[in-house]
Amino acid sequence: MTELLEQAVLKISQLPPIKQNAIATMILEELDDEAQWETAFAYSQDKLTKLAEKTREDIKRGRVKKMGFDEL
Asked: What is the mean pLDDT of each run of 10 residues along the chain (72 residues)?
């Protein structure tokens, strides 16, 4: 465990149980969310690669029109 995490755990341990549980819930939700993003990106790499290749081809063949955000 890092020193910074130890400091955080020490401070959290001094809070009332209801606040400890609230913080623990937030941390666990954040960790779960991060794991879901990592999984989603891991499974999407092939699709993203194909989309990038198609985009490069479209640009090369002049099938892309440059636009600003207000023109979308």
From this structure: 97 98 98 93 88 94 88 76
